[in-house]
Specification:
It is a single chain. Helix 2 packs antiparallel against helix 3 (35-59) and helix 5 runs antiparallel to helix 10. This protein has a two-stranded antiparallel ribbon with strand order 1-2. The chain has two domains: 1-59, no CATH class; 65-264, no CATH class. The chain has helices spanning 10-16, 20-30, 35-59, 65-85, 94-117, 126-157, 159-167, 172-197, 205-212, 217-250, and strands at 89-91, 262-264. The chain is an all-alpha fold. The protein contains ten helices and two strands.
Length: 267
């Protein structure tokens, strides 16, 4: 049977909005207090996606590498800030640390995939670069926010034990390596869990999109496997980098724990 691509009209799109009424109705019936947030989130999502659709339609016609690079840097900057905005505690320089970690990890992973694996010509082809980069960034920022939160919470909850080890002559690494490892592990858990059930419980959005667009399922699966490897590597590098930055910021060169550098984020 020949596959065909079905275009969703704006009328069908409006009809699909009825599905969100399930969430709103459940919130109102159980008095969850989420109805207003659901409506705002729905409106923001629709507007943001429609706008990005217009931007991508224009972007895919561009053949200027500098335009593509600038868009990529904007995406990376937003991801770096979004990762920090989800944390409860912060320190001076945390935004720059997050931005640098996201930038380095996403550039390495996406660059390797584009040039070494998929071998896109030219390397900056926005049809490939932007979607792949977006998927790596979305997962990396989640891992970074989880890892940062766990690391700073771990230092606060184990402060007495860490300071006792430092007093007894332990180096800052000897005193804090358990918290560092735990933070990196927590940051990587969502990606590992997703990989464990992929294909059995869940069908990834990228693979589903390709299949709906008429791609051969086996081809879509191969792309999805590459993307999951990219996401896993990008998340691991991003979390490792940002936790290491936080470690050096919250432990002085004299092997002292400096929790006074932390401050509570305003909500």
């Amino acid at each position: 049977m020949e596959s065909r691509y079905i275009i969703i009209s704006y009328g069908q799109l409006a009809l699909s909005a009825l599905l969100i009424l399930v969430n709103v109705g459940l919130s109102m019936a159980l008095k969850l207090g989420l109805a207003r947030s659901l409506v705002i989130a729905t409106l923001r999502m629709v507007v943001q996606l429609l706008l990005i659709g217009i931007v991508l339609e224009w972007l895919f016609t561009q053949d200027n590498p500098w335009v593509i690079v600038v868009i990529s840097l904007v995406m990376t900057s937003v991801a770096g800030m979004a990762a920090v905005n989800r944390t409860q505690q912060r320190f001076v320089g945390i935004y720059w640390n997050s931005l640098l970690s996201v930038l380095a990890s996403s550039a390495l992973v996406t660059g390797f995939a584009m040039a070494g694996i998929i071998q896109v010509q030219p390397w900056y082809d926005p049809q490939y670069l932007i979607p792949l980069l977006g998927m790596v960034l979305g997962n990396t920022l989640n891992g970074i926010s989880l890892g940062l939160d766990r690391f700073m919470e771990g230092l606060a909850s184990q402060q007495d034990q860490i300071e006792m080890l430092l007093t007894l002559g332990a180096t800052r690494w000897e005193a804090a390596h358990h918290q560092v490892r735990d933070a990196i592990r927590v940051g990587m858990i969502p990606t590992i869990n997703s990989m464990m059930v992929m294909g059995l419980v869940s069908l990834p959005g990228m693979m589903t999109g390709q299949i709906l667009a008429g791609a051969n399922p086996i081809d879509a699966v191969r792309y999805q496997i590459v993307i999951m490897f990219m996401i896993a590597a990008g998340t691991a590098l991003g979390v490792f980098g940002v936790v290491l930055f936080a470690y050096y910021r919250l432990f002085s060169a004299d092997h002292q724990l400096r929790l006074d550098h932390l401050y509570q984020a305003r909500r």
